[in-house]
Structure formats: structure tokens, C-alpha cells
Amino acid sequence: MARARRLEKFRPAIYEYPKVQVPKTSLGLSIPTNRSSISTAQKMIKASQQGAILNIPIFATTQNAARLGPICSELSLPSSAFESDKTAFSMLVPSLISALRSASSSSFQIAIVGIETHICVTQTALDLLDKGHRVYVLADGVSSCNQGEVGIALRRLAGAGAVITTSEGWLYECMGDASISEFKAITGLVKETKEITKDAVQTLCKI
Fold first, then answer.
1. With the CA atoms of 77, 95, 167 and 26 taken in that order, what torsion angle do they form, in degrees rounded to the nearest 10?
2. Which residues neighbour 107 within 8 Å (Cβ) at sequence distance 6 or greater?
3. Measured between alpha carbons, how far is residue 157 from residues 8, 43, 109, 147, 162 in Å?
4. Which of 79, 163, 87 minimizes the C-alpha distance to 125?
5. Residue 7: what pLDDT?
6. Helix (H) or strand (E) holding 141
7. Is-contact 34 200, C-beta < 8 A?
8. Per-residue confidence at 60, pLDDT binned at 50, 70, 90?
9. Which of 24, 62, 68, 78 is deepest in the core (most CB within 10 A)?
């Protein structure tokens, strides 16, 4: 019965409440550890693509693309992804708020990856928490120019109510039960990215 209740709890999170991936551009910034965060973002996009494994909407922003460049091409965002440029540090600009409202009128469970942890990721997470959303920050999917900023920012966000977790932990939490139809595809993706994930966790998850 416990497994059945858990499945009932988390399946609506997959199908009714969008989670937000936030891959942002790495161009124009010198972030030595950003390769790991990009690899994590690639994995999460693959798991979350519309019509793919978990069918979770993707929302992405760039920070002043005219100066810092577009979303890095390695991420290969699907055509269904929402994209918007901004100058505000938080993602919650009018265009994205409107897109979120179009996706659902209720509160969201939102997973964030991107850069920089102590600026855009932090301000986005705090704004989402302030609006009553459930926020997950994937520690192996966020980075900063000064890596020392990351742990401080993540501890602050945890104290504010965000869930600090890893990409693999979040994927399994989304599923909740090995009996669901998506389980085989997700575990296949986990095995396929095992070494990349191990490297990202060892490099970035230092809270």
C-alpha cells in the first residue's frame, strides 16, 4: 500500500504540474565547472522532453543574449521549449510568468539547472518560493564563475525552503515507483549517463 500511495502522490507531479528546466548560456563566461552542469542539463532535457520519457515542459532563458550570447548549442532544446531573453537576474519576467500560467493555473513543482548559482538561480528560486511554488535546485546542474559562491547560495536556498537535490535523485522522486511505464526508459538514461553524472556530482555537489 505504501508504494501505491507514493505513486499516487508523485504521478500528478509528472503529468499535471510542470517542472522547469533552466539551462542558460555559458558563452561569454569563464566557468571551469560549467561542462558538468551542461551535461546534467542535457540529461534533464532528454528526460523531460515533450513526447519523450516524462513529458515535462521546458522553460529556458538567456541573460542579455545580445552581449552574452544565446543558449549554448550543446543543450539542443526541443522546439516545444519556451525560450525568452531577459536582463533581470530572476527568470520570473512577464513573458515567462505568462507562459507558466498558460501551462497550468495551479502552483508548480519546479526543477532548476543553470548558471550562475548565486545570481540568476538564486533570485529565480527565491521568487518562485515567494509565489508558493515547490522548488528543486539540482546541485549537479548549477555552477558559478567563482565556485566558492555555489555552496553558500545552495545553503541559503535550502534555508529559504528550496529542496537541494541531484538530477538522479529528482528523476527517481518524479517516478516514485518502479512499476510505472517510464521506469525502464529513465533507468536506461541513468545508466547511459552514469559516468557523466558521477563526475558532475563530484565536481559540483559541495554544499
1. 60
2. 17, 131, 132, 133, 134
3. 28, 23, 15, 16, 5
4. 163
5. 37
6. strand 134-143
7. no
8. confident
9. 24
